[in-house]
Specification:
By secondary structure, the protein is mostly beta strands. The protein is built from no helices and nine strands. 0% of the residues lie in helices and 46% in strands. Strands 1-9-8-4-3-2 form a six-stranded antiparallel sheet, with no helix packed on it. A three-stranded antiparallel sheet has the order 5-6-7, with no helix packed on it.
C-alpha cells in the first residue's frame, strides 16, 4: 500500500534550489528545476555526501564531494566514483503541497 507524505511547500523550494527532508526514516533531496520537482535519496552512494548541496545541470546533480553524477529522474549513477544508483521517489504536487509517494 502506498503512503503520501507532505514534505514541503512549493514556495519553500524556488526554481534552481533544493531541500533536504526526512521522510519515514529516509533522507530525501527535493530539487526544483525550472518549476519541475524531482526527488532522490539525499545520500550519495559513494561516501554519503548530501546531494541536495550539489550543483544541478540538465537534470543531473553532481555530488559536492567527489563529483559523482546522478540522474534526477531515475537516480541512476552516471559516472565514477559512485557505482550504485540512488533511490528516486515519486512526487505529487497538490496546491502548494509537495508530497512524496512511497
Ligand atoms: S561522496 Fe559523493 S562522490 Fe564521493
Amino acid at each position: 500500500m502506498t503512503k503520501e507524505f507532505e514534505v514541503a511547500k512549493v514556495s519553500e523550494i524556488p526554481p534552481g534550489s533544493a531541500k533536504q527532508v526526512e521522510v519515514d526514516g529516509e533522507t530525501i533531496a527535493i530539487f526544483n528545476v525550472s518549476g519541475q520537482f524531482y526527488a532522490i535519496s539525499d545520500t550519495c552512494t559513494h561516501a554519503q555526501a548530501s546531494l541536495s548541496e550539489g550543483e544541478v545541470e540538465d537534470l543531473v546533480v553532481t555530488c559536492p564531494w567527489h563529483g559523482a553524477k546522478f540522474d534526477l529522474k531515475t537516480g541512476k549513477n552516471l559516472c565514477m566514483p559512485a557505482v550504485e544508483p540512488v533511490q528516486a521517489y515519486h512526487l505529487k504536487i497538490e496546491d502548494d503541497a509537495i508530497k512524496i509517494v512511497m
